[in-house]
Amino acid sequence: MKKFLHDKFYWLIALFAGTVFLSNDAFLPAMGHIARDMNTDKGAVELAVTMFLVGLLGCQLFLGPLSDKYGRKITIIICGIVFLIANFYCGFTSNLKGLLIARIFSGSTMAVIGASGFSAINEFYEDKEAVKAMSYTANVSLLAPLFGPVIGAYILKFTGSWRNIFYYDNILMLFALLLIILYMPETNKDVLARKYYKNPKLYDKLSVEEQAELEKNPYSHKGTSLLSKFRGMIMLSKNKTFMAYAMVGCIASFGFMIWITGAPVLLMNLGQTPEQYSLWQMPVFIGLIAGNNGAIYMSHRFGVSKTVNIIILIMPFCSILFMIGVYFFGSYPLGLVIPMGLCLFVRGLQNAPMNQFLLSMSKNFKGSAGALSGLLGALGGVIGSYTASRMASSTNFQTVSAIAISVALILLVSVFAIYWHKQDKKKTSQK
């Protein structure tokens, strides 16, 4: 078991990520109860989702360089502890302001998944295996939005208190943190080099191949300043190819979070109960899970780079089918669920290959690469969530039109991304 969890530690990352996501999805069916307890309206409570993403957005800039400097494992552990404290307060507080502040800190821990979790996977596994690991990680993580609303609805029903949703989630996080502390390996080569050079006995136990790998970066054991890690993120932000591909994720997150935040209102406008809303979410996320598994096949068949370029060109055309379905069948839940499931299937095909593609663009600042792409994704998510909360009183057609337009915009960004990528490859071949 120890060797399995060490060699397949991405399951631990998945459990950590799923637990964080669960805190965001399980309480959605309880929004009405929270609003009544805090004497406010549902639109104000929906801001709790937005604040969760604000926390994610604010910490991306810091966790990437910190992960590059101090290591993947320690940053995950510290963020897990922050989550436990903040999530407990979400269940404890009796006012909306306290809930929103606590949600910022809860959401900040999600930033470590890209900055440390995916960076560790990229460093530990080869290209195709890394895509496979990220896809499996995403599948487990998606159990949260898939079953989270169901779990939250039934906790609310059988315990009578929305506060228990947050408390039970903390129990799961304690279990995930314990496994990470015991079994997750450190993959940051700078951190490993400092560790082994400080302790010659450990260094001598390494194989010749492992010693040679450390010697490829002879200055890493001397340490690099935290400021230099922040400079690495600035360098990445000036890479227009990297930023264009990352913007695809930003726009996709915008449309996705409109659905996540607005779906309770959209489906309840069609006469669905909280329990029914939870069940209608299942086919949507099954489409996303199917896409994640399809990404494994496509990456093995076409390679990571080509898979990314194929999918980002296909994704915008889903908006056409989306609008057709909504226009003719929008008065039925299936008229919303089937088009959204199709969009998320295509997005699932893109998720893991895109993460691996972006992380591979940087050799020395993978934490910063993961954080910067995550920052843009979070920015799109925050805007999307806020848009949904502001459109809570709008018609269903207006809300889903915003989703379709966002998906269509991906085509424009994709054209620039692919063009710049080809230009970069030409420059590299000429050298």
Quickly count the helices: 21
| Range of helix content | over 70%
How many angstroms separate the termini?
Answer: 47 Å
Q: Biggest β-sheet: count, sense, barrel?
A: none
Low-confidence stretches: 218-222
Question: What structural class do you assign from the helix and strand content?
Answer: mainly alpha
CATH fold-level label of the largest domain? Growth Hormone, Chain: A
Assembly type of the chains comes to single chain
Return the string of H and E elements: HHHHHHHHHHHHHHHHHHHHH
Overall mean confidence score, pLDDT: 80
CATH class of the largest domain: Mainly Alpha
* Approximate shape: globular
Radius of gyration: 22 Å
Beta-strand content: under 5%
CATH superfamily of the largest domain: MFS general substrate transporter like domains
Number of domains: 2
**Could you give the count of β-strands?**
0
User: What is the annotated CATH architecture of the largest domain?
Assistant: Up-down Bundle
Give a structural overview.
- Helix 17 runs antiparallel to helix 19 and helix 18 packs antiparallel against helix 21.
- It contains 21 helices and no strands.
- The chain is mainly α and 431 residues long.
- It folds into two domains: 388 residues, Growth Hormone, Chain: A (Up-down Bundle); 30 residues, no CATH class.
Name the descriptors:
431 residues; mainly alpha
What is the secondary structure topology, with strand pairs?
Elements: H1 2-7, H2 10-25, H3 31-37, H4 42-70, H5 72-92, H6 96-108, H7 111-124, H8 127-141, H9 143-159, H10 163-183, H11 189-198, H12 200-205, H13 208-215, H14 226-237, H15 240-268, H16 274-302, H17 304-314, H18 318-329, H19 333-359, H20 366-390, H21 396-430
